[in-house]
Each structure stands twice: as structure tokens, then as C-alpha cells.
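Justification of computing resources. Each target in the renewal requires a structure prediction run like the one illustrated here; the chain below, 245 residues long, is used simply to show the kind of job we budget for.
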Amino acid sequence: MDRIAIISDIHGNTPALKAVLDDIRKKEVSKIICLGDLAGKGPNPAEVVDIIRRECNEVLMGNWDKMISEESDYAMVKWAREKLGQERLDYIKKLPFSLDFYISGRLIRLFHASPQGIFHRVHRHSPLEKILGMFDNTENTGKLFGDQSPDIIGYGDIHGAYISYFDDKVIFNVGSVGNPLDMTLASYVILEGEYNGRDNKGFQVNFIRVPYDVELAIRLAKDSNMPETDAYINELRTGRYRGRK
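Resulting C-alpha cells:
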């Protein structure tokens, strides 16, 4: 079986990213796919972009990548753009929306948030109609395999890992590498199956949690003089959005 690592939402957190990549290297993974949000919120946007470009086979655009690729008055975006520089900004601006491929006879589609848009957020407990809309073919996703809708959806954005089943279809969220909001461990997924295989065979969606040096990430944030440092530190230490329950 092929092993494909899927990571997302690094948010400028180099200690978390390096810990996850070290873990991936131990697992005989053949491909690494990133679902976006490379920068924003964390202190090392340039370093993360450089690592992702070097280590990942495919990289998709996240909502923060979209925001950072454009001029803005938002302090965090302005700070990140300055740190990234024009060449990296040009790279981020060209990231694709989604990725389709077969695995063990099932069509899988990966994107950052939803087929309706990069800023269209779908949670685990969203209304059923909204969740089932994740399987739609839209102008954003295109129709690489004709009118066939995907059997498996993988996404990021919400920073909370989960898997749900709807008859013969599957949705999973990979969680977040650099800003997990369900627990204080970095999260990613390894998808196992026959990559590009059209025959119906077994597959697995494996969730992996990786400890990393949270206090080092906090020191890097403090040393960077980035905006919204206190809120970011609170999220890293609590695993909650802005510390909320």
C-alpha cells in the first residue's frame, strides 16, 4: 500500500512543522500533501513556506494564504507579507484550490475549507445539508473526472481532526500542525491505499498526533514582535480558539 501524508494549517509554527516532518520520515511515506494556511498567526512565515516548498509534493491554498497574497490593512497580514517578501508571495498567490486523485478505487478530493470557497467553513456538527455539500463539484473544484463526485473528502481549516461516514462516502479533517484547537498536539493524517489505483481495494485513514516544543514556539513568537502574540500563545497552550471552552 502507498502511504500519503496530509498536513494542513501550519501557520508559521516551525517547531511543530519540523516535529511532524520528522515523524513522517519514520513512516515510509511516499508523498506529502499540504492543504494550506502556511503562514499567518505564527512567527515564522518565511521559514515555513521554504520548508513546505522543499518537502511537499503538492500544496493547496488556504484562507490565510489568500489573505496574505493580497494587500491589506490587517496588522497580521501586513506583518506576514513583509516577512515573506515578494518571491514567496508570488508562490503563495499561485497555489491551486483543490486536488483530485484515485486511491484504491475511490475518488478522493482534497481542499482547504470547502468546494464552495476558501472562506466557506464547515464544522463537524454543521447542518447535514452543508456537510453533504462538501461532495459537490463546483466551479472552484472543476470536474477532472467528469461528473463523478468524490467518494472521500479531506480538508483542513477548522483545526480539529475528525472523520465521518455517510453511507459509502467519507469526510475527514486533518486537524492542524501548527495551531491545533482540539488538543495541544500537532495533528496530521496518513492515507493508505493504492495511489492512482482504480480497482476497489482496502484503504485506511490514520490520524497521528505529534508532541512538539510548545514553549519554543512561544519564545519564537515573543522574539518576533508579531501582532496578536498573546492570543496566539493562549491558543498554543490551551488548544482552544482564543482560549475559549
